[in-house]
Amino acid sequence: MWVVLVGANWAWWHMKRLVRGEFALLGCLAVLVAVLSGVVVAGPGMLERSSGDALAARIEQEQRDAPGITHRMRFDPEVERPGEESVLGADLGRFSTLIENAAPAALRGDLVRDSTRIALPGVRTGEGTTLSLLYASDAPPAAAYAAGRPPRARGGVVEIAVSTRTRDALKLRLGQELRLGPGALENVDAPARVVGFFAADDGRRLWREQPLLARTARDPRGGADDAVRYAGALLAPRGVEVLQNQSRAELTVVWGMRLDLGADAARFVGDQGQRDFERLMFRYPESVQGVTCDFGTYGGMACALGSHPATEVETATRLPDTLDEFQRQWRQGSVVISFALASVTAVGLAAVVVASLLSVRRRLDVHRLQRARGASASGIALGRALWTAPAVVLGFVAGCAGASLLPGAASAASTSAAYGRGVLVALCAWLLLPLLTWWAVRDRALLRDRGSGGGRRAVAEAGVLVVAAGGVLALRARGTTGGSGDDPLLAAVPVLLGLAMVVVLVRLYPLPVRLVARWSARWRGAVVLIALSRAAKEAPARALALLVLVVTLAGAVFGGLVTGTLTEGRRDAAAWRVGADASFLGAGRDPETAERLARARGVRETVTVRQLRVDPMSGTDGGRYGIASLVGVDGMKLRSAAGSSPAARALIGAGISGGGGSRDIRVLADAADAGDVLTITVHGKERRLRVMGPLPDAVKSDPALGPVRDGTEGRERLLLADNRDLEAFEASEFEESALLLYGPRLDPDRMRSVVPRTAPGIGVGELRIRAEEQAEADEDGLIAAVTAAHTACTAVAVLLALLALVLELLLSAPARGSTAARLRTLGLGGRGVAGLHLLQLLPLVLAAVAGGVTLGLTLPELLGPALDLREFTGGPTAPALRTDALFTAVPAAGAIALVAAAVGVETWLGRRRGLGAVLRLGRNDD
After folding, report:
1. H or E segment and range at residue 639
2. pTM (2 decimals)?
3. CB 55 within 8 A of CB 265
4. What is the DSSP string of 481-523?
């Protein structure tokens, strides 16, 4: 009995001692497993949530200024005898309910009614003001009225309501009667009564789409400066019927529907999700037509809106195109996020390897003694596996629990696939220590058979380089597998490239270190020589630390490079789409609106840009030149408005600007020689083009040409001419025309009062304002999602890398301490020891920083077609790469600061320890 108690007591004491000795390493292993398991389990869910949030933000941004889906129905006046009480309002409400209920089951609750509107052509008041009348179901309620009430559907008098600004500008009073006369709406002569004044100071979208409701506008072409020429007013459905019955005009009702995907938007991300969405958008218009029209015959029209003959409902939406654009961009965004997740996993596993090596190092003497007493290498490894199993299990459970608490990660983390990946990573982390233990105490390791070590190293390094090159080539040839982010090859490429970079660094960086060491031999002290010599000699042993630092820095630099490029590239693309401070597309089709914009407040200069689609033939041999865009612009005006314009410089430099006496159209061509003659045929008329010189490459990306070339950049050829040489062409013959507006103090509100934002399906000119376009680019949810995911992954990777670096410094600390102790016996002081430690670690850190930054900067070029940033930004060319100094400097500075701190700690500990605690007889493995 006494023997049993003594044995149990000894075993308990031995276990407590072992736990105390290994507690830090076991805790470190548990933390690493928890982080790795959490990242692997929660990563797909977070990626899915990010894609859903980004898609929801993109859909919301698309619908910021107009509903995402519009249903339009044209209707005639009543076929029955007009009555005193209107039923049009009830009919509009009934149709609105039918249209909302016709939504597919998959979109039920997400597709909601936004507005119902009927816009009437302008009428004239007695004071000469053109009044634009609108019925809008989303008009402000009675609580928003400063005085009076909203218009009602009753009587034969048209009740109207105007904004308080319109009241002040037109000097109206409550109850005042106006006489509405013919304008764009002909044959009108009806009394109108002002029944209310509403405040238009809030951010209601109605004011942006119909700015005349909020404020009046003046005619810039002349007249009294204070004369109001244009204003807007709200009216009830009864007023619509009264005016329509008088004018016998055909009107159009527009039902706007808004899609709010919310937290469930991720179901439409990916190829399958996109197909599902397109199928729903295809079925929805058919359902709407089925519930709104019974194909009766009313006055020659197939359908009816109550007692009004009407056409079938026409549906227009840009949402499928928006989703298609988002899918292309998300495929590229998933590349960046997948790289970040792969970097975190690789750095975490490398930290586990370092922790395992440190544990093996600390227990190596005990294990060698056990082998000498007859224990097998497999038995020792099995014992280590059993000893670390509780820590691994605890870390895995903690990681899964943390992943389930993250917002949006539960749906993906609950799947068996996510947990399966987490179990696989935990098993890898668990088996590393037993395998390294077995490798260290196997028979060949104890006998130190290193005869063929150099050859094996060369073969291994060559294999790493070949596999990395093969992975990059395969990814460039194949591209990505889609937007799911589940691409093993894509995840493996950063690790393979990091290994390849480490192989190159381990071979190269000792060379300059040895040269500096030899040069330092001429100096009086030996600290530099010894430190650099050991740094060069130990380079292969520091490969793991190099891998951790290189992968972390490369991931941070690459992500910062991509996010910085995307942010600035979107702004550059916005400037390309606009071309100037503002631009009006469709100026040739609507010259009156273009003239009003040119006279708007803040516009200082204007330039007209026009484009023709032509198919030139050679004037000498009749060969085809290729489908080309013939762009015309006034070079002198463009140089005055934008002096840095390459197109203006090219035209003026070739002597084309200003027109000429020749009947030929003088052009600059991108694929023809000076003096060549080309012929084109436009609407049956043949015209000659004379090439005056080559077209500079910079002209192709000139923002001044962007408004007309946006969407046609893929054409084979580009020809540039002066507008005066194109005067023979009719305005209708031009494919696109735009009026560029320049001015440092443009008034967007005033310009929007001339050209409001429009809903899809309304074919009017488009006003683009650079400040608005760039603001939308800055608010893009996709870039925000990519930046947030990359920043989070980079932060985790940096923390893991610093932990791995600390473990690596602890692993190599005995060798440095032994060297310092020997030098201290020879009289080396404290400053010399600190310098020794710093110089010994400095080449490693500098090599890692150089390799990581270089790899991060070259990754976009290495990936090639697998990462097309132009999908994100648009524009004529791929965006210029822009580095992010923060993501580059912070990890590098952190590594250097950690090394400096480690040097200080090691020097302090070395002063407190005696030489006998460091120097050991019979230890030659350092």
Report:
1. helix 635-641
2. 0.77
3. yes
4. --TT---HHHHHHHHHHHHHHHHHHHHHTHHHHHHHHHHHTTS
